[in-house]
């Protein structure tokens, strides 16, 4: 266990007590020798390291940005979503912390086991519903009397947001989230045992003039198979091993070969005055600076690449490549 860090006020109070004689330095040394006992609550077991919690927070920072963009487009109003906190607590504590009547969406996240919960604060949920129905986004907490139409509209909005969750988690694992249940009473949801550790990601949400929280509850059983991928070591290793596989090179090469390019052959150049240009007429001859004894230049996307000679093939004009132009490829000739 790491030693607890004292605040500045506690340090000042300790120094003041020592200087005034209220506390004896020798007594402190004797107390230091005694074994320190720290209370540990086994009901609130910490099963994720701080490092793993930080990476979960990073994933949902990205999810919050994606969700802000999605809801802004769907609701056509100002939406701001950001991660407020990420905590690991017993499932029972999560259920007690949310309102008695709220909007609860339960998702499966195959191929991972278990299910996760999205809890939308009624203020947010009703502001969304009001915007969908053409209102200004006013929040009216009347969650006990949700009609079938209101339930369907909310569910459709939440289902379409699952693509953002899938994209945010793609850096860790591929998931296929599916909405399985829509509930308003948290007491009817018993996903895991009351003492099971869950990660709760709280998103601070503002929609127009309404604000509230979106809470994401992720049980330990869901994250257990991918816990190693949440470590900094995995992320750093993933960043450092960017070498492409042979099949990836083959695919890139195959696609590049299909790319279209513009080829042009320069027959020659000439310069005339504006006056000469104005008086040009049929059958006039313009002398080019290109000798018939010199090869022509073939350009690829306006970049000189080859020396060629003109000719015909099957009654069509053609050129035959003589030599590749070495050096100065990006200087027009």
From TrEMBL:
It comes from the Bacteria. It is found in: Bacterial flagellum basal body; Cell membrane. The keyword NADP does not apply. Its main location: other. GO terms for molecular function: cytoskeletal motor activity. It holds the Pfam family FliM. It is a peripheral membrane protein. This is Flagellar motor switch protein FliM. It comes from Gracilibacillus dipsosauri. The lineage of its organism: Bacteria, Bacillati, Bacillota, Bacilli, Bacillales.
